[in-house]
Automatic annotation (TrEMBL):
Protein name: SDR family oxidoreductase
UniProt superkingdom: Bacteria
Domain NAD(P)-binding: 13-204
Taxonomic classification: Bacteria, Bacillati, Actinomycetota, Actinomycetes, Streptosporangiales
UniProt xrefs under Gene3D superfamilies: NAD(P)-binding Rossmann-like Domain
Signal sequence, renumbered to the chain: none
Database matches in InterPro entries: NAD(P)-bd_dom, NAD(P)-bd_dom_sf, Polyketide_Oxido-like
Organism: Nonomuraea monospora
């Protein structure tokens, strides 16, 4: 995938949040996109967009659809406090389908809260360590499990992206990143800027088999 090259992307979680912004930006850039959705009618129609009805936890219904795509991008998310397997089980199915269909490039989203920098402000460390992570412990546990599953896929060209708190702010393109290390300080990031990074760094060699922390500049 060269810079400016039109590609075929398969997006999980493309009906809302970061995923919806990713789909919109990819289409605006001239790419062809396939999105998995439980309710296809919730996804705006576009000539270069194919929407596949399905559940990420049931790959038997969509796995073959990955054939012919250049990259898979996962923006799966859950704010549920109950135990969940959407991250780990979902990614297990995604990777299996990628291998079967011969797709190697994968980018997925987790959270900067999984590994805070020791240099982060004390207030931020206390809030996340004592409030946020305990409150959403099941989600973070499954998210961490997904990271381990992805990192073990040595045959794939994967990227794990860890954003901070996400907002519905505008696209600015003003963000900083760190490869396989912590940013000393993170600031909230718009979902549009996160989508911009995901879309525009698929051919970034530094991001291959790496974990990227990202933050608003």
């Amino acid at each position: 995938m060269g810079v400016g090259e039109r590609v075929r992307l398969f997006v999980f979680g493309g009906s809302s949040g970061t995923g919806a912004r990713l789909v919109a930006q990819a289409l605006d850039a001239g790419h062809r996109v396939t999105a998995l959705a439980r309710r296809p009618e919730s996804v705006p129609r576009h000539a270069r967009l194919t929407v596949v009805r399905g559940d990420v936890l049931q790959p038997g219904g969509w796995g073959h659809e990955l054939a012919g795509h250049d990259a898979v991008l996962s923006c799966l998310g859950s704010a549920d406090r109950r135990p969940t397997t959407i991250y780990s089980q979902g990614m297990t199915g995604i990777i299996a389908a990628m291998r079967e269909c011969g797709v190697r490039r994968l980018a997925c989203v987790t959270s900067a809260s999984l590994g805070l920098s020791p240099d982060a402000p004390l207030g931020q460390r206390l809030l996340i360590g004592r409030v946020v992570r305990p409150l959403y412990r099941h989600m973070y546990a499954d998210m961490a499990k997904m990271e381990r599953i992805v990192a073990a896929a040595h045959d794939l060209e994967w990227t794990i992206v860890r954003p901070p708190r996400l907002t519905d702010g505008a696209l600015t393109g003003e963000y900083v990143t760190a490869v396989d290390q912590h940013l000393p300080r993170t600031r909230s990031l718009s979902r549009s800027d996160l989508a911009h990074y995901l879309l525009n760094h698929l051919d970034d060699e530094r991001s291959r088999q790496a974990t990227i922390e990202i933050s608003r500049r």
